[in-house]
Amino acid sequence: MPNVHIVTDSGAHFTTPHFLHQQPITVVPNKISIAGKTYREGIDLTPDEALRLIAYQPYAPLITSPSESEYAEVYDRLSRSYDAIISIHTSRELFPSYDHALEAARQFSSHCPIAVIDSQTMCAGQGMLVKVALKAIEQEATLDDMVRVVRGAIERIYSIYYVETVNYLLQNKIMTPSHTILSAMMGIKPFLGIEHGRMILMEKVRTRAQAIDRLVEFVVEFADLEDVVLLQHKSYMSEQTRMVQDRLAVDFPGQYFPYALYGPSLAALIGPDATGIVVLEKEMEDFDDEF
Fold it and tell me: Would the pTM count as exceeding 0.90?
């Protein structure tokens, strides 16, 4: 079995960040510019600190993905100790991390195979894919099999976000000016999803009660869950998250629904006041084996 290391960018978000220190994972940080000052995501600022800063700014922060040279430096160092690298990145439709990593990887393919993967998602979904890769490294015999497992999981990751304000959506061209004006006039709030790697407007609701209903309905649509996380903009459990957890406990007795603060890279796209759910659906073959 090859000795394989995982590389990802800080667009990936984990409910228990400390586990990174116990695993063969390297996180290359994005840079986030807030009010004219630039920070390394996850190093100079915690998610909690970043969201507090972002909340006071009228303009969306600027996210700069790791450069080709930064990835090349990481790959060069790891290639001396590992047989292969699996490099998992935020959707190329959202940030250029994947493209930069792919260019860097071409410099090392001759002596250290590097599989560069577009997660087609970000935040908790990207973090889930990293965990899938960790499991594949333990269970699969070859790099090709590991990559096959990770790519297969991409199609089973689903995300939905309820957004309180639309300023960032307008600035990031996720909503058009006409939709933004209509939302403000009618007091309706957007639901966003990630499809084929793109952040898209799915539907709108008028009240938080309707938002909670829709978040619950989103999860109930799945037959079985391999992983799930509720994302919120507060470090402590919000009332909205608690209500969603209580509702889901009825439909999924015994299932744990952890919550986490979402990361600055996602906040730069959708704002510092969203609530979301990310699901990794259980693979159907595994589900069938239980019967």
Answer: yes
